[in-house]
Amino acid sequence: MQLYFENTIVQTISYLFYGVFAWYVFMSVKSDFGSEKEIQYFKAQILSYLVYLFSTWAWTLNELRAFNIEKNLLMLLAIVCHISVSCTMYLWIKYYVYHLQLYFSEKRWFKRIFSVPIAMALILIFSAVKHDFVFYTRDVGGRTEIVYGKYYNLLYAFFGIYFIFVVTGTIYSAIRLKEKERRQEIILFVGYIFILSPVVMFSHFLKVLSVTTVSHLAAIFFTYISIQETRVRMDGLTKLNNRRVAEEYLIKAIGELVVDKEEVAVFMMDINDFKMVNDKYGHLEGDKALVTVGNAIKKVAASNSCFVGRYGGDEFIMIFRNKLYKKNNIAKTDNRVENKTENKTDTQIKTSKSISFEDFEKMFENNIYNTLSRKLNSAIEHECKLLNLEYELTLSVGYCVCRSPKDDPKSIIKLADEHLYEEKGKYHNAKKTNGKYKS
C-alpha cells in the first residue's frame, strides 16, 4: 500500500512538472518564432500534449489503484488519450514539414496524402466504442482495466508511414540545400526522429505510459531549443539572416574596406503592395509571399556573392562587397549589360583614384544597381509562376555605396532606405499613370 502511495505521488509530481513546462513553452511562443502556420501547428501540438498528459495521468493512477475509474469513463479516457497522442505526433511532424520549408509541403497531393494516416488512426480509435479491434475494457477482481486488441499495432504502422515519408523528404531536401546551417537543422531533425522512434516503440510494447509522455515532452523541448537557437541569427519565417546579423556583417565589411580598391554597397528592398496581399488574401498568404520573395532574393544573392537578410516586416537587405580591381561579377553575369560606354566606365572605376563621388555613383547605378534590380524582380516573377500565385510580387530597391572605413553603418542604411522610398514613390506614381511599373 505504501508503494502504491509513493508511486502515485511521484507520478503526480512528474506529470505536473511536464504540464507546467509545456505551458511555459506555449506562452513563450511569439510571432517571430516562424510563419503563422508554423506557430499554429506548434501551439496546437502543445495543447494536444496537455490533453494527453492529463488523460494519461488519470489512466496511470487507475493502473496504480489510486482510484477505480468506472468502465465507461475508463473507455472514454482511453479514447481521449489515444486521440490526443495521435494528434500530438501528427502536429509535431506537420510543424517540422513547414518549419524546414520542405519543397513538397505546399503541393496539393501532399496535403491530401498527409491526412490519410491520421484519419485511419482516428477511425481505428473510435472503433473501440463498438468493437475490440484496438482496445477494450474488462473486469479483473472488481476493477476495470484496458486490454489491447489484435489490431492495436496498426496505430503505430500508420504513424510509421509519416516517419518514413518525412525522413525521406528531409534527407532529400538536405542534399539539395546549399546553406550549411539549414542542412544541419534538417539532419538534426532526422537524427532526433531516429532517437524518438525506439523510445515510442519501447513504451508501446512494455505498456509504460509514462515513457511516452517523456518522449513527447522531449520533442517539445527539442523544438523549442532549436527555435531559440535559430532566432539568435536567423529570421524565423524566411530563414534568412536577421537584422542583428545583417548589421554586424555591415560593420565588419565597412571596417575592412581598402580605400580606392573596393566598396561596400547596401541595397534595401521592399515588397510593393504587400499590404494588399495581407488584406485581400490573409496573413497566411502574406507569410507565403514573404518566403517566396526571400527565396528569390537568396538565389540572386548566392549567384553574386552577396550577403542577404530580412531587415523587418516586408523589407530585406543585401550587402554587396566589390573589389574594384576585378571584373564586376554582377555586370559580368548579366548578358544585357553590353554597352561599350558602360564597359569603359567600369574600367575607369577600377583604375581611377581621383574620380568624383558623383560620377562614381552614376557609374555604379548604371552598371550594378539597375542590373541587380532587374535580376531580383525577374527571379521573383519566376518563383511566382512556379507557385501559381494569384497576385504579382515586385520589389522596389534603394541603395547606398560606402567607400571609406570611417563611414557610419547606420547612416549608410538610412541613406539606402531613403533611396528605397524614392523608388517606392516612383512605383506608385507609375502605377497611377500607366497601371504598371517596370523596374
TrEMBL record:
SMART domains: GGDEF (SM00267). Residues 262-439 form the GGDEF domain. InterPro entries: Diguanylate_Cyclase, GGDEF_dom, Nucleotide_cyclase, Rev_trsase/Diguanyl_cyclase. The keyword Manganese does not apply. The keyword Lipid biosynthesis does not apply. SUPFAM superfamilies: Nucleotide cyclase. GO terms for cellular component: plasma membrane. Keywords: Membrane, Transmembrane, Transmembrane helix. This is Diguanylate cyclase (GGDEF) domain-containing protein.
